[in-house]
Fold this protein.
Amino acid sequence: MEPHRPRGSHLSDRSRAERNLGWRLAMPAFVIMVAVTGYPILQAIWNSFFAYRLTDPENRHFTFLNNYAVALSDPIFWQATGVTALITVITVVVEFVLGMIIAMVMHKIVIPRRTLRTLVLIPYAIITVVSAFSWFFAFRTDTGYINHWFAWLPGIDAGTDWFGGFWGSIFVICLSEIWKTTPFMSLLLLAGLAQIDTSMEEAAEVDGATYWQRLTRVILPNMKAAIMVALLFRTLDAFRIFDNIFIMTGGANGTSSLSVLTYNQTIDRVEIGMGSALAVLLFLFVLLIAWLFVRVFKVDLAGGRS
């Protein structure tokens, strides 16, 4: 039996030299990125240990973890966390289903493929603030056209106030988010579809497998890495949702997310200490989500060529 070789010992001298060259080329950008992002993170963590109001800088004093204790014991914080999680789950699930359908259509169509991909990307190319304002004015009772177009549906008339309650506001917020970011999801899934060997699907079809069986046993398992990347990126982005809520409701009707709550504490109330603590908690939630995705999917992205 051959002795166990340490990892990386099978690399040739050329491969090792190429890997070292890659690290040297990427190192300047990596150092700059860490410096640019690391300082604000460390500064936020440091500020979160203080009772610090920007309008009263002389009264700043060290409280250690008191801001975190206040935030975690406040029902408003957990309500905002629940709203954030609700929006994240709804949008990511719907975007995944729609994105998968669009990706499969784009993967099968041959002739107008480039034109189709360009058209699909149009919503994602629009600035989020512009998109949010467009949806906001479309659903308003005075400037909107949605009520007039869908007045034939039960419960909808010219005076329907979509932003007058919690669920109506959540519906519009989620709809605008889904419309804008589904193209991003579809492109990531399309990249995964392109990695699948078509002979595997053809062989399953020859063996008599139905389309659903080919989808669940051949297509989805072989694009596991792409699915994880798509879901991870969109979940992290959706969990930090701010623009749509800020423009449409401003957090009214109980629709405030963690990002909006952090903004209100830091900018509106100039509570730098509490706002920094909320920002750190949001950052920890994002790290936890990323860790859970990696643990659940168990995909070695570093080890795969794709």
The mean pLDDT is 87.
